[in-house]
Amino acid sequence: MRWRRLKHHVNLFSLISVITGLLIVVPMLNILFEIMNPGNETWLHIREHLLMGYVINTLILIGLVAVFSALIGFLSAYVVTRFEFKGRALLSWMLILPLAIPSYIAAYVYADMLSYTGTFSRALRSLHVSHDFNIMSMSGAVFIFVMTLYPYVYMMVRSALSKQSAAFIENARLLGAGKFRQFFQVVLPLVRPALVAGTLLVVLETLNDYGVVAYFNVRVFSFAIFDAWERLGDVGAAIRLSAVLMVIVFVVIFLERFLRGRRRYHLHVKGRPIQRKTLKGINRFILPGALWLMMLLGFFIPLFQLLYYARLTYRTVLNISFVYLTINTLSLAITATLIIIALATILANFNRGNQTAFKKSLLKITNLGYAIPGAVIAIAVLVFFIDIDHRLYPLYRLFNENTARLVLTSTLSMLVFAYVLRFMAIGYNAIEAAYDKVGEKFTEASYSLGHSKLSTLFRIDVPLIKGGLISAAIIVFIDVIKELPLTLILRPTNYDTLATQVFRYAREEMLQETAVPSLMIILIATLLIYGLTHQKKKDVRFHVRRD
Amino acid sequence: MRKSLIFLLVFSVMLVLAGCQLGTSSSDRSITVYSERHYDTDQYLFDLFEQETGIEVRVIDGNADQLINRLDNEGEDTEADVLIIADAGRLHRAKSMDLLQPVHSDVLFNNIPANYRDEDNMWFGLTKRARVLVYHPDRVDPSELSTYEALTEPQFKGRVVTRTSTNIYNQSLMASLIEIMGETEAKAFAAGLTANFARTPAGNDRDQAKYVVEGGADIAIMNTYYIGRMMNSSDRFEQEVANTVKVFFPNQNTSGTHVNVSAAGVTKHANHSEDAIKFIEFLSSETAQSKFASANYEYPVHVNVEIDDLLASWGDFTAQSIPLSVLGEHSYRAAVIMDEVGWE
Fold first, then answer.
1. Please, what are the averages of pLDDT over each run of 10 residues along chain A (547 residues)?
2. A235-260 and A221-230 helices, crossing angle to 10°
3. Which of B13, B74, B340 lies closest to A338 in CB terms?
4. What letter does residue B1 receive in the DSSP assignment?
């Protein structure tokens, strides 16, 4: 009897899911176990002089970034979906564009513009005005993170508002609810899951960043991890700090489940678009003006500054090897994205229906990679792959007597694996959200008609969530081409990407030379965002589901 | 049908990725370099080396500590033959982790002065840079300046600027002072300097020079080569900054100006140690030295090689005479002291 029940659970999906989960968990366990070891001298030093500051700064940073990006993301999504004004359609997709600019590049550009030789300071000086805004500070870091990351919130809230809320809001209006009540009792609860999920992504990205906080000397956890490793020369202490960070992330993710609330709202109306109100009076200028200002700060100003630098430096930077860089970057990102999306689909599929404690914890852990600084994941993955290579060595010998021992370690597979570990959360969450929207009725119907899981996946699920899959793929792709620490440390010899090229120049403080590779990253990401927002819309039918 | 196709696709991609290097053995003549420095002009030298010897140079560049960690984890299976790092303290770290092997080469002994190489011949300095005072000539009379220590005096309150304590150059400067003046004095120096900072440290070395020209501070502690870089920047406003400030070599009548090197060592488990030694010898040769050093406006270690015109214009200077291995020995204490005095 028991065997039969077990057999019921064992299939290709559960196998792949469990194996993926284990592959991701095993390298991470090395990190978590570090907490068990007694602290050494370095750890005591960190605890006595530094830890308190790290914790406080981290809380301030993620707190402020979360509040402001949630606010900006939500308000811009609200304005774009509820009001009609000139340029609305354009803004509606362009507001996502700041995602194309890696935070560390935005930080370098802004710091330079506001420095003595920078464009902005020079312009002010010519008007005999001086400014003393110091961007290399906590508030500067908050500004950079909010401006480059708010699109996560914007995208999620916008899709929640445009797809589901129209009927609810109109009913509320018809029933005589005031504007205030409409907003707080209908709109806000409707978008709460999206708002919280988007803000979570922003917080996790912020926790992971090292480039911005290192340059601005904002002493948060990721900063601490590198400081322990590099300056104090203690990898053990660095890993220990990462373990503490993982605990913080557990709490944040738990908080998200709590804040998201349990209720889900599905509707069986045809996807009728919301009736937008035309903006009147002074609001005609203020609201769109505010949005354009954000576009300016988050996208156009850094873009134009980089274009100016590119004009200064393209002669030395643009050469044949730049073509190889671009090809490397694209092919690597395509491979990683395909694998991540395939695995994320299987995992999301595995997770539908009955949720057991085992499934839940497996998924939470597979999501953890997103919050751990890349360099720490790099250590974990490297150790893991060296171990695998040692185990597989006898197998390699069958192919080639004189083979080197570290075969996998010297190939791209190590880097791709690290990407999977790092970005699974993004792919998975986007696909899970898509699944959430379509519910399970069709899938269950297909099962009850005798179709297998696989056949259902390809005939029912994939067509239903195609849009979600494409969005997930594009977001993962953009993240991969922007990724730096993993790429830097896990790539094979003589293998460069656009991001590592940016790093090489930035490390030597040659900001102007970073412009061309940075612009290439931004260009690729911009085209993808354009594609993402201009997908052909299929007629989507909603269905009834109450839970 | 379709299902199996998709899975086949995914797994074949993985297999290709894994298998594409399975057949390659290490028979062709090449060396692998883990390098912290990789300038566009370095590639020219690597190509020259290949022309002369037929040995191909393969490079992974990255952060010093990440490269050291990778080397450590790879153990005896590493591909790396040479480790190049831009700080003597970090090379000492690699040495104490038992990642390097001693090299006995008369060529290297002749080309490189003794205090710029490891006492056990584990690593060899190739280029050196000085950590100097950079000041604004309108607000600072050079006669005011004398030593690093003097910057702790009250007349410099609110006038000094430098990078964060996490920066390796400051850490090595502190380590050298611990060696020269002892830990107590060095700590007093760090505390006094921190008290005189014009702002909470942030930014890179160029930002410090800009802050001086802007008027936020009068004196910056920074590396010589950044002035060289800024003078040749593609941004003419950065050139202006570099042309405005002046360079002062501190401690000329006492312990000498702090210098550091970028240096190379042969890894302990190198598969091609002979070729690796040849490579380092080549980089220390007269032909390579001028190019290798001037690529980054650094001083060559080879005494016969003429220095770049720009560096010559700053004049000769006396450097600290301590063996650079001590930078690594004291680096941990240096970090702890800076934390204790609140140097951010």
1. 57 76 77 73 84 91 96 92 88 91 91 85 81 84 95 88 69 76 78 84 87 88 84 82 80 74 54 71 85 92 93 84 88 93 85 67 70 76 84 82 76 90 85 76 79 77 82 89 84 84 82 91 92 66 42
2. 170
3. B13
4. -
Chain A residues with CB inside 8 Å of B199's CB?
A: 134
State whether B202 and A122 contact (CB < 8 Å): no
Q: What is the pLDDT of residues B327-343, one digit of tens each?
A: 888 988 999 999 999 89
pLDDT digits (tens, 9 = 90+) for B56-73: 999 888 888 888 988 988
> Is residue B66 a contact partner of residue B114, using CB atoms and an 8 Å limit?
no
In DSSP terms, B131 is beta-bridged to: B223, B258
Rg of chain A (C-alpha set): 24
Instruction: Give dist(CA A400, CA B22) in Å, integer.
Output: 8
Q: How many whole angstroms separate alpha carbon B275 and alpha carbon B270?
A: 10
**A389, A415, A413, A380: which is closest to A488 by C-alpha?**
A415
The domains located in chain B, with CATH, are 31-128+259-307 (3.40.190.10), 130-258+320-340 (3.40.190.10)
- A506 alpha carbon, distance to own chain's centre: 23
C-alpha of B26 from chain center: 31
A509 to chain B: which residues are within 8 Å by CB?
Answer: 204-206, 226, 229
- Closest C-alpha among A482, A468, A456 to residue A538: A468
SS3 B118: coil
Give the separation between CA A416 and CA B16, rounded to whole angstroms: 12
DSSP three-state, residue B61: strand
The partner residues of B117 in beta bridges, in order of sequence, read: B124
How many angstroms separate the CA atoms of A247 and A349, rounded? 27
Domains in chain A (CATH in brackets) are 8-28+335-493 (1.10.3720.10), 39-314 (1.10.3720.10)
Judge: B339–A508 Cβ closer than 8 Å, yes or no. Answer: no
Q: If you average pLDDT over every residue of chain B, what do you get?
A: 87
Do B65 and A233 make contact, defined as CB atoms within 8 angstroms? yes
Check: CB of residue B87 under 8 Å from CB of residue B223.
Answer: no
Q: Mind telling me how many Å the CA of B110 is from chain A's nearest CA?
A: 31
How near does any CA of chain B get to the CA of A154, in Å?
A: 31
User: Quick one: closest CA in A to B73, which residue?
Assistant: A383
Q: Which pLDDT score is estimated for A3?
A: 56
Chain B: closest CA distance from residue A398 (Å): 11
Partner-chain contact B204 A382, CB within 8 Å: no
Of B203, B211, B213, the CB nearest to A215: B203
Across the interface, do B205 and A409 touch by the CB < 8 Å criterion? no
Tell if the CB–CB gap between A50 and B339 is shorter than 8 Å.
Answer: yes
Between B3, B20, B74, which is nearest A386 by CB? Answer: B74
